[in-house]
Design goal:
147 residues, alpha/beta, TIM Barrel, 4-stranded parallel β-sheet, 5 helices, 4 strands, globular
Amino acid sequence: MLALFDYVVISIHSSFSKSEDEMTRRIVKGLKNKYVTMLGHPTGRLLLSRDPYPVNMTKVIDAAAEYGKFVEINAHPMRLDLDWRLCKYARDKGVGIAINPDAHSVEGLNDVAYGVGIARKGWLRKQDVINAGTVDDVLKSFASTRR
């Protein structure tokens, strides 16, 4: 089924109380799937209302690098997840970053600006952000994750 999609985003949406090792293994297992394109809102945090679930983001970023997957900066102002302090580490490991608005309405598309701010604060450059190029560039990037 996943092979039918242009891209596949995995995210944790339940069982937040698992241990750090369990959550990390869970995400890494998802990143190993050849049809997965990127990890969305990598820590599950909701600013001022829900702490991030326990996860070793260094290991997750290492796995994204190993399996050729992308990691999202979720630009919704209540998420801003990936934390800016991990952006440079991801960049240095060769992990492409996608800035996504997590829009639930047309107005939510404007939230991309917050993600750009996180990317800048995290020392990312235009070439580090997969959806900062042309549509053809993005589609080629998506296709490169299927290995």
